[in-house]
């Protein structure tokens, strides 16, 4: 019987009169990339801190790599790579010295691994940590999480501050970890990021699980906000009732709508007119919640 990489049962966390988690039940399989989605205040960071024994539960149980985080000690910590959502690095040492220090605390890393990761992320290891930009500090955080090839990676909003190219390189690192049989627990408020790499995702809201989704199913019905500028005025009637298209509005020569899943019907209808430009963006997570789950709490 396989031991779950992460298992929570009836997990509750209260801060005074405020309840951050209301009986969370999750199970993450070994070798899985598990997305943990939700807006700020959903309970994502609280769950991660409970996993790492940075805080203690009010009720319920949690196990990480088959161990109680309270009793796992340094042996359990060495098997985890953690990137916090708020990374504070202000030391005078260089990035190379900081990473060497952290590597020693974890029992060492394989030769060349830090340099390999730094080159992938375009990180200058010779610069003082306190002089690095937010994005470069995030790169240091990513390197320290991945460098010892941990059995479990716990990543809280990992692409914050990274430019789009480096976001893609980071996702490649996640894929490589999965291919190597390691488990990735990735918290994010960006649905498209999780859709790129995750196998399953839990969607949180207000400290409760709203849904557990297979990411392939989420991808098939992905929402996009679309704006099309035409060469001249178009009729609303030409675009109403199209499969997978809703919330259609027309302002002269500009059409705005939301697509779910395939945009094929919309593209074919638009092709009957002169198209100047198309802009497609992902809705924020709150819009997605209301679209998928009827806004239920």
Automatic annotation (TrEMBL):
InterPro entries: AAA+_ATPase, ABC_transporter-like_ATP-bd, ABC_transporter-like_CS, P-loop_NTPase. Residues 6-231 form the ABC transporter domain. Pfam families: ABC_tran. CDD domains: ABC_DR_subfamily_A. Transmembrane segments: none annotated. One of its GO terms (molecular function) is ATP binding. Keywords: ATP-binding, Nucleotide-binding, Transport. Belongs to the ABC transporter superfamily. This is ABC transporter. It comes from Actinorhabdospora filicis.
């Amino acid at each position: 019987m396989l031991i779950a990489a992460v298992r929570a049962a009836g997990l509750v966390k209260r801060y005074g009169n405020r309840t951050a988690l209301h009986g969370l039940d999750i199970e993450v399989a070994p070798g899985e990339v598990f997305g943990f989605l939700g807006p700020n205040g959903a309970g994502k960071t609280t769950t991660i801190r409970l996993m790492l024994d940075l805080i203690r539960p009010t009720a319920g149980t949690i196990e990480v790599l088959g161990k109680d985080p309270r009793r796992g000690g340094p042996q359990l910590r060495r098997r985890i790579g953690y990137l916090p959502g708020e990374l504070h690095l202000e030391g005078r040492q260089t990035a190379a010295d900081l990473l060497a220090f952290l590597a020693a605390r974890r029992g060492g890393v394989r030769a060349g691994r830090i340099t390999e990761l730094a080159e992938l992320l375009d990180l200058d290891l010779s610069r003082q940590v306190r002089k690095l930009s937010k994005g470069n500090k995030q790169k240091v955080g990513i390197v320290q999480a991945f460098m010892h090839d941990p059995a479990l990676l716990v990543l809280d909003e990992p692409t914050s501050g990274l430019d789009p190219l480096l976001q893609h390189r980071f996702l490649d690192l996640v894929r490589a970890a999965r291919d190597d049989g390691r488990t990735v627990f990735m918290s994010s408020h960006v649905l498209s990021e999780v859709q790129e790499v995750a196998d399953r995702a839990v969607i949180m809201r207000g400290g409760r699980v709203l849904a557990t989704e297979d990411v392939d199913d989420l991808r098939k019905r992905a929402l996009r906000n679309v704006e099309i500028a035409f060469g001249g005025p178009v009729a609303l009637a030409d675009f109403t009732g199209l499969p997978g298209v809703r919330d259609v509005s027309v302002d002269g020569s500009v059409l705005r709508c939301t697509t779910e899943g395939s945009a094929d019907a919309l593209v074919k209808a638009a092709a009957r007119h002169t198209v100047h430009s198309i802009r497609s963006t992902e809705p924020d997570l709150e819009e997605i919640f209301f679209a998928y789950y009827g806004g239920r709490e």
